[in-house]
Records
---
Amino acid sequence: MQRIILFLAFLFICCKLTAQQYSFVHYTPREGLVNNRCRFIYQDSKGKLYIATYGGLSIYDGSRFTNLTTENGLADNLINDVIEMGEDSVWIIPNANKIHYIVKGQLRDFVPTDGFCPGINQLCKNNNGIYYALAEEGLFRLENNRFIKMPMDSIFNGQLIKTFLQGLQIGNRLYILSNPNYKLGCANLLVYDLPTQKLIACNNNGCITSLIKGYDNELWMATVNGIYTPGKIDEQSKTIQLKPLSTNWTIPKNLSVYSGFVDKQNVVWLVTPKGLYRIKNNEAALFTTQNGLITNYQTFVFQDAENNMWFANNQTGVSKLSNQQLAFYPYSEPGYSASDIFIPSSGDSVWLHDIYHHKLVVLFPDGNRKEYENPHEALPNLARFVSGKTNWLTCDKDIYQVQLKADHKHYSLSKFYHDSTATVGFSNAIIDRNGNFVAASDKLIVIAGKKILAAPLNYMADQLAIDKDNRIWVVTRKNILYCFEISGTGDNIKLVLLKKFPSIINAAMRSITADRSGNIWIGCRNEGLFCLHFDNIVRHSSRQITALNGLSENFISYLYCDNDDNIWACTPSGLDKIKRVNNNFLVENITRSNNIYFPILKIQQTANGIYWIMSGQGLIRYAPDHSIVNNWKPRILFSEILVNNRQTTNGTKSKFKYFENNLVFHLAAPTYVDERQTRFSYLLEGSGNNSWSQPSSNASINLVNLPAGSYILKAKAIFLHGLYPNTETVFTFTILPPWWQTTWFKLMASILMVSFIFFTIRFYFRRKLQLQIMQIEKKQAIEKERTRIATDMHDDLGAGLSRIKFLSETIGMKKQQHLPIEEEITSIRTYSHDMIDKMGEIVWALNEKNDTLEDLLSYTRSYTMEYLQENGIQCKVKEPDSIPDLNVSGEFRRNIYLTVKETLHNIVKHAQATEVFIVIEINHWLTIKIADNGVGIDNKYLVRTGNGLPSMNTRIQGLKGSFMIENNNGTKVIIKVPLDV
């Protein structure tokens, strides 16, 4: 199946190579850039790229683009300059009289102390740390947050001094480009002396396009006629002459240069109408659309901290060249096809086989090539070439010897072996360490000298491998691994099967290679790459590498071990380099990182370390330059934090309310060698999960519905290519609990609960004590009432009974003496009636059924009317229409009744009244007013005589009431008692 795929792939490609193409990576609005018309690029100390465009500012951190426009607060979408002013503070200069700055992820406005801001085109920092603003209005110095205009004439040597575009400090002089008339592509040169703060010279030829900082702090000027440097200043005319750049540079003469750049490797890059020139080691190379650029005209050249080259243009966005050592040679002419690529051991020449024209093509290290033709012998199928002591060619079931002719133009084939019993053709052939030819189909064939050795494999084998001990390892599509050894010499040479490993890997095995550490690497159809460690031929351990670890994909079609013991995996999606460091496997995507997305079929390495890679669209030459030293170490950053999908100030807020518990953290680890090889993992301490998340290319962490608590978010960036060590960062934050779960609330609730329990218990025991006291008081009241009843019965009934007894004895004595007894009988009758009344009063007072206010007033009113009527006194009673249903105590009833009774008795006995007026009022008090029309009472008499009035006063005071007597046209007694007694 694989042979058919390879054949069809090469059926439509061609072998003849065109000019090399470089692997540019392009960034456009499709990738997230804010606008395709780019002006320049700036990188801050954290590694973030600021791409200024005509349509806003894009901030690229390797994971995503953050775009700022007027909708986000910019004063203008056209960005003139970007400069880092301090730790986490980047100034943005828009094309307006305004300055913005970004601090902790927030865009803010810088307001000078006097409110004045010029229209700045460039902000320069001199060697003393002073900032100069090159503006439309002139030159300004930033001092104490104010822009101070530097003294400068408006006309110098007849030249209008206005509209400063670009400045560059060389020594103590600031060289300024001025374009006062806004002429397109033309600018004058001004020389400003910083110590004296004076303009000392100018050049107004108007042909300068930009200033370039060249070698050794030298000033270069790009002009429409080439590169110039400043000459001497004429003191008299105050002009400065321009002189051509030294002829030591291989720069084409009279070349129109728009701008330029000298990188850290002293490579010169020049932007010209023809394209982008690179001058390295006095060798000039032109980059155009023919070798990878999207457009020939670039506006800006920039080198980042990792030595990647960036090119901005105002048409198609930004292009990146991260690997200048990788060049692609596409097949150009139809009718040509390379079926194989082979580099002999310890050789530097590359052999290609052209199946359609039956040619062998040799590419020499010096760039020359040689072609060997064989027009008479047509091979019917895909052929593979290998070279050892003899040159060999395999095709289908045949093995040919290749003889190169002496004319160096032709070759011939002689069939050496034909396998008539094979079910499949030869898919792979190699040369072992002794120069023997080894090939595999459904059997293993070894050609040692003129002897042919064979061993059955029983199924198709795709690739062979020779280990460090010259053993042969073969995998078949039936998932069987074989290990063979060639033993003996001469006629005694044998092919010996050392061991057979059936189903050593539960996967569809396709490719195999061996490294120098005793490991056998096996590539599979869908399960990635396995590293099997053998001690002799005893398996000890195995490791698996998949796309999760950084592979381009899990189908490994071809494996190769290079001179540095690195493993190269060819896949339908690209080429990967696997390097083992401290028992860790580092995966570098060689082709994908360079924007090459072709199926990779085979790779070979020359003795001088150059790799030749055969793809589905042409050849790739990769010459790693180990001389480039890169000290950059990316740091992982929390580029943005969202709380409930709203941005928060980055890194300053670490406490969130209980409803702010949906957090999104955007991570970044600025590196641009291959951004897609960066993986992120995180661990959230405090969540109960103590395991790191599975590394992922997703640079966002979503935390949803976090409960209240303290958390430590640890984030880690893993660089699968191994160029940088892993880096970690920490963000500590707290989700505050709701107020009902706060400590103070719980404390207050606990206090209230304890207080409630305390007061409940206290109330219970106090109530219990009160009930006990009430029971005691009730018992005491009963005892008191009993005592009172006994006293009343003794005083009232006892006295009456004693009188009746005395009168009865008197009657007996008078009967014996025959004296009249009517008077005594009348007295007995009177005393009996009094005793009956008093007994009724006592029973009425003791009956609980009468414990209502209405019963009290009814009984008292009945007694009053009856008593006064018996004594011939008229009585009028005024009382409320309705009497409240209130209970009163027996003592209350008795004292009120006896007080009224005593008052009526005094009226009958002393007042000589004919009428009595009684008024009853009920509110919160019971008020009884008793008035007569009698003679009244002398107040002096009240004080010195009788016990009745003091007794009544005592009774009413005992009820917490008042007893008053008014003497005015009769006597008025007022009884007032509270009803809650």
---
Amino acid sequence: MGSWGLPLAAAAFWTGLLLWDARPGPTLSWPSWVWLVLGLAGLAAAWIAAPSRRVEDPLARAGLAARPPEQVVAVASGAPDPRRGPLAALALLLIGLVLCGTGWGGLADLRRQASLLARIAPLPVELTGTVREDPLPGAYGWHVLIDARSVTWSTGAASLRETVWVSGDDEPPEVERGDLVDVSGRLEVPEDPGFADSLERRGIAAALRVDTLTRLGDSPSRFVRATQAVRRVIGGSIERVFPPREAGLLLGLALGDGSKLDTATERDFQATGLTHLLVVSGGNVAMVLAPILALAAAMGLARVGTAVIGVVAVVFFVILTGAEASVMRAGAMAVTALLGTLLGRPKSTGVVLSAAVLVLLVLDPWLVRSIGFQLSVMATAGLVALASPLGEAFGHVMPKPAAAAAGTTLAAQLAVTPVLLFHFHEIPLVTLLANVLAAPAVSPALMLGLIAAFLGVVWDPLGSLAGLVAQAPMRYLELLANVLGRAPVAHITSRGGAAVLVIGAIVVVTLAVALRTGWRPPRPAVVVAIGVMPLIVWTSAVAKGPPEGLTVRFFDVGQGDAALVTSPAGASILVDGGPDEDDVATELAALGVKRLDVLVASHPHADHIIGLPTVLARVPVGLVLQPGCEDGSALKADLDRAIADEGVEELHPHAGDELTVGDLRVEVLSPDRCWSGTESDTNNDAFVLRISLGDANVLIASESEEPAQEALLEAGVDLHGTVLKVPHHGAATSVPEFFQAVGADVAVVSVGENDYGHPVPATLDAVAETGAEVWRTDQRGTITVTFEGPTPVVASAR
């Protein structure tokens, strides 16, 4: 099959794994063993269809005997069978591998469905197992993955090998990956579709809400205990010799420990597409393996000894750094290459990558759904296919070192772009520049940082002195991410979907073929593309320019709030950021928003402010408005840190204050105090704003409840608004008189799937009785209201 055989085989098996969930209808809902049998039959047919190879006399091949005439060989071999050919064999092989992949994916899914923990849920249980990854803080507490080895419940006990998602409140427990722990709590099979799908992608069937978590000791495995000891020594030294921000950066870069990473730094790196620098990557494996192999060669070790040392070093490093997807891929490639060299059959990088991918997918079929694994494989494939020709092309216009860096960066970026657009729906165009500028500092930051850490193990002052040198490239990376993250550069955005992957793959493959073979597209196609491109750019620019009238977009962010107000003069106000870290920032990028004049955090509840720190990291903001009432939540503290990190001015206006934002007028109607003693003081502290442009206006009532609404009515505040953002997602916390006083023509309920019953029928009826037309984001998607003069015109995404 040549050099393309193994890559095609790996791609076929990968496709088969994905097809298990995509098989069409009940007609093809066969058991997994049927797919496996069909696949094995396909492989057998490929073997039969493969053309036979002539077996040449070894003496003749060595020149020690005369070769028989070609005519004799032809007669001896017989006439070729027209039914046997390389193309038919290859087609049958690929079909067989696709079917085998489908069956293998089905077996993995059967193991998940047969989960003992899912069967005994929702019972309280006690689990014993090992921590797979370090506990991570979240918006609502913390979570960690635990590989359970035994479980006890009220009526039984069992041994098992199953991974469970464990979560809890308050601070994360003092455990690290590899630790043996005892956990008690209540099992559950997640009902939330998003959460359930997220667990399913990891092959996890059950979650456990923890009551107690007790560390029993280090890992039961001596090998893993050794990695834990090294990690503690090096990690402890890093934390001693570096300031907290740089220590967090180096811990992620060198050891795969993201628990100490500064949140502002993380957001900056995400905004510039440099997130891959915050974790251990495949390049780290090469940095570790190269000196070890060089030392083995200098010691004169035999090929077998060198290979064994190399494999052990790779496995140790993979476990040490937490077996991240990219490191597993690189580790598997390194082991494959070492074994190939040992056997005297070294292969090309593309073949080694394909073999590593195939082996890993057989061992862990769930890797096919890992975004990290997908990105790592695609980036490496891009380097194999595109880095050299791009570097040569750039070499004609820039110095060779810069050309190599640009070619490598662009190759990896082109390959991962379809995957990023599919999963995350956006790519900042500044990414290429950021990666090129960052490349020279990454290796020095890592190597100097590790040298300082090793010196710190010997003597802290010596490590701290060396750390001063290592901080230079680290702070350069931090500054680069911070500056470029908010640069007014456009983003490539998409709505996701399979079409993005298909079209993106076609573009990348076409480019690779053109660069490597010299093929050029037909001239008519080039002419058409050149003619259409200005039209696309012009249409996009017009769509993303200032609106003709006051425009309000109520984003569909699920169970939460986020609204963008824009004006003909270019003023822009964002009110709240929804419950997801990235959704609103992505929406702003898709709309071409390069700056925000005002960002409003109506009140510090998760469904309103979780997305705001990311917005602050990616978009320049002129002013932040917050109520300024006391709140000790971690979410509020995170937002305050983000505001301080970005150096944005902050105001705490109250009822009666007015602001002019370009051609917009912003009136603060509530709160007139910081509430206490109500059922939800934080909700009553929330802003009620009226934003106007001439006679056109919108009243954004965020989450005010009965006490705040009644105070407004008793004070005789003018509440009229043509468009109303209904308070509290339409909950039963409003008084009908409030809606009557507003008298809106259009009422928007920002709501998503929830367990609270929002919006309640009584509230919807009270709004409708005022004559308002009610629109809901859970039913219509993002809702856009554009004023033609004082008249609102409503459009929705669906």
---
Amino acid sequence: MRMKDQVAGFVLAGGASSRMGRNKALLAIAGEPLVVRAARLVESAVGDATVVGNPEMYKPLGLHAVSDDWPSAGPLGGIATALVASKAPWNLIVACDLPYLTKSWLNYVIARALASQGDAVVPMNALGIEPLCAIYHKRCEAAIRMELEQGVRKVTDALQGVLVEIIAQLEWKAFDSDGLLFKNMNSPEDYDEACAKLNGERAEFS
């Protein structure tokens, strides 16, 4: 069975970017918009990538996108949208603002999922789980949708009803000795840092 038949890839890019002051998905690192960078990375691991966000905004970038079914529900709504849209049993779902992710890490998460009996495989950081760089089975869809309908908006709360396999910090540290793997890009300062570390040229910020 081909990888793309077993695992679908999704990039969440529908956030408000309030701290950044503009749509961070479109900010460039080394001349490439962050959302494109994330989509290409996911494609390299699973063969395809669908963006959860405004299709009209991302189509000119050559990206396939689907509208968020729960636009006011934050990342949890994006995860639910991805699971509804997916035709694969497992679904790699990452936020677009994680510039330090690597293919080797994604490959490891996928391998863990394909061998797992759980409903989701999620890494654990010092401050808690990292649900926006994780892999979810299609069977999570009903449970997450039910939580959304009951008003739940926090991803960690919604996952209480599914069987989660945790990847401990000691395990993922092997892929990231600097501890940056799950560092997201929320502010202009984060953008500057990411550009400097990834040898990118900072795009004009306004």
---
Amino acid sequence: MKFFKLGELPELVLYILAGVVLVGTAFFMFPGLLAVFFTEQFKIAVRVLYNLFPFWGPPLFGFVFFNAWVAYVRTKFIASRKFILLEIRLPREVNKSPLAMELALSGLNVTSGESTWYDVYALGKVRPWFSLEIVSIEGNIHFYIWAREDYKPVVEAQLYGQYPDIEIFEVPDYTEAVPHYDPEKRYVLGHEFKLAKPDPYPIKTYVDYGLDKDPKEEFKIDPLTSVLEFMAAIKKGEQMWLQIIIQGHKKKLKHGTLFGSTDIQEEAKEEIKKLLAELKQEKPEASEGGFSYSRIPTKSEAEVMAAIDRNAGKLNYDCGIRFIYTTTPEAFVGARIPQSINLLNPFTSKELNGFKFGRGTYTEYPWEDFMYIRMDILKRRLLHSYRTRSWFHGAHKHAPFILSSEELATIYHFPGGVLQVPSVERVMSKKAEAPGNLPS
């Protein structure tokens, strides 16, 4: 007979068990709680709710059914689509700035598919989403793009249009090498990132590093090289997966309302208004009541407002970023974890925006995780959400943050000769057209 560990039980079962234990403990410690359910006031409250059921019952059950229906038709639609993984092999030399990747990614800003209410609520259609992935397998760096099969020509056309010397192959999913979480055979650790400030504030992009000017290789300062150098330093038995999930951004409901929508451009204008309002000051030596005046913004304040305005004018994407470090128990290096939490620090600016730790597979105190039950659940959930590339739909749905095409191209682009990591998968020969004098 097989006995299941607590961490292997379904989450719903664990939640039910935890609820039963908490309720039982509460009644045991406070026997007077039982008396509440036998008072006359409690009986009257139950009777009132029962009599008012025709008013609150149908809306409640209608709301539950509607959400269940939408989840069902969306799951059915997604399951009917085939998804593929494309690996990009780089040429020996990449002499283009990240602007080329920004132009390539613009073709993946697809907002169609949810045009009408019938498409969304009857057919379950969703906007296509893509996963940009940088993977290190025992120190060998790979670049991948995960997409729906029907969007393969779009991905290839956009990439070949900007990088004609690359090669693109459809490959098996590398995550299948870790089919499930087994702490005795393979460790799985990881976390998700979120923005430190509101979406309109941009991160430190390739424009801030001067890469938009195509400087010579010896003068380039590419923030992505720090990420790749860290990922390439791992040894046999270790793997690192960095996943950037993107979806074309559409207007969303205003915060705290059921009607009206807003987009990133409007949010950017509001942030600039707040910054301008901070420039207004009361003149201390003024007469009664004083009067306000606007001081001249400092250089950094002006740069922040200019960066917000420039970023709002770009194409925007709903995004999610997660990282996984998986290794055999013998190859595990504990120092990788705190380093990976700071992995995206090269794109962080104190005045603008940056990335910080979101959710992870770690707990701070032993009493937060009895018998490591919660940690096992978090690891299984992270591995499954990474493999299914889920962020916008399904059981692993999370609220996305917004990045512009410029910000995305900063995090995910093909490095040039400034990267001295020999383990990046590259094409060893250069493409060229056949001579015109060859016999037919």
